[in-house]
Design brief:
The chain is of the alpha/beta class. The chain folds into 2 domains: about 150 residues, Rossmann fold; about 120 residues, Rossmann fold, CATH 3.40.50.
């Protein structure tokens, strides 16, 4: 009888030990959250996004996304979403070096916008575009047509409004984080960008007489320039004043006569396309109407790639590049 009691006690003790061991080995709620975050599926609850007047419900994180336009692609890569991408298209220049390895994992569907056939051939479940031109019948198709094909879409809001701020860019980044269930990564990215921008802005925020800036995108007969778009915000944060910030458009055509009248002290050349930045610079230096413009007389230019002037993760780089050119003595 004593032997039976001893065996029973030993069995109960062994069972208790097994239960305690299993409890100790079970992942904590924090570990589960970290695992879910790493896999991009942090929540099984639907995510509802308001985007350009549409209400979009995402029952789950997209698994085969296609990013269109460079700033959309770089936001995806910065959030570590390359494994959720079925393709990318339409770069303006080179991907940032820190994302090159991740970018090489993603199929390139086209140098420009892919045809509808090529796009749908990638079997996408999500399309993320920087510019609204992507969602047209001449490109991928309208958002309604994509929805009918089972493809949800998101258009970068900050790229398709007048006078966008960095806060508008941050909202886009946070929305993508919510859609892919990587909100913590999105918040960390936004905070890092804010820190980098503030570090530069602190050096120029007390400038009493902001340098006058003319943005030259293109055009020989008439200049195509930045008005109330993202670059206007970048110039302001860098301690400058855009000479055409009074035009109620994003990008606008001005006149050479008005450039002379407003007499910029420095010219920002947007670098993209077949005409090189050096060719644009030579054109401006040799333009007879601009001889007496201060920026031309002093040969003060700063080159900015188009990708840095778009509403993506390069805002801190754009501000630093501009501020160093505007006030080299402060750096």
């Amino acid at each position: 009888m004593i032997s039976v009691k001893r065996n029973l006690a030993a069995s109960i003790g062994f069972l208790f030990l097994c239960i305690m061991t299993a409890c100790n080995q079970a992942p904590s709620s924090e570990q589960k959250a970290e695992t879910a975050e790493a896999s991009g599926s942090g929540s099984d609850q639907p995510v509802i996004i308001e985007n350009m007047g549409r209400t979009i419900t995402f029952e789950e994180a997209p698994k085969r996304a296609v990013a269109l336009n460079q700033h959309a692609t770089e936001i995806m890569l910065a959030l570590g979403l390359e494994d959720s991408m079925a393709g990318t298209a339409f770069l303006d220049d080179e991907i940032l070096p820190q994302y090159q390895e991740a970018y090489e994992k993603v199929p390139v569907l086209s140098d420009k916008y892919p045809s509808q056939e090529v796009f749908l051939g990638a079997e996408p479940d999500f399309a993320y575009a920087g510019w609204e031109s992507a969602f047209s019948e001449k490109a991928l198709g309208t958002v309604e047509q994509l929805e009918d094909a089972g493809v949800k879409s998101y258009l970068q809001q900050s790229s398709n409004m007048n006078g966008p701020s960095m806060d508008d860019v941050f909202e886009d980044i946070l929305n993508i984080g919510r859609i892919f269930r990587v909100e913590d990564r999105a918040k960390e990215l936004v905070e890092s960008m804010k820190e980098d921008m503030n570090a530069v802005h602190e050096k120029v925020k007390d400038v009493k007489d902001p340098v006058k800036v003319f943005v030259y995108d293109s055009g020989e007969k008439e200049p195509f320039t930045a008005a109330q778009n993202f670059l206007n915000e970048m110039i302001t944060l860098a301690g400058g004043s855009n000479i055409f910030d009074d035009i109620e458009k994003g990008w606008a055509t001005a006149s050479w006569e008005e450039v002379v009248n407003r007499n910029p002290e420095i010219i920002v050349i947007i670098d993209y396309g077949d005409t090189t930045a050096d060719q644009k610079k030579e054109f401006l230096l040799n333009h007879p109407a601009l001889t007496d413009v201060e920026a031309i007389k002093q040969k003060r230019f700063v080159v900015l790639p188009l990708s840095a002037g778009s509403e993506g993760i390069r805002g801190p780089y754009a501000i630093e590049t501009l501020a160093k050119a505007f006030y080299p003595e402060k750096f």
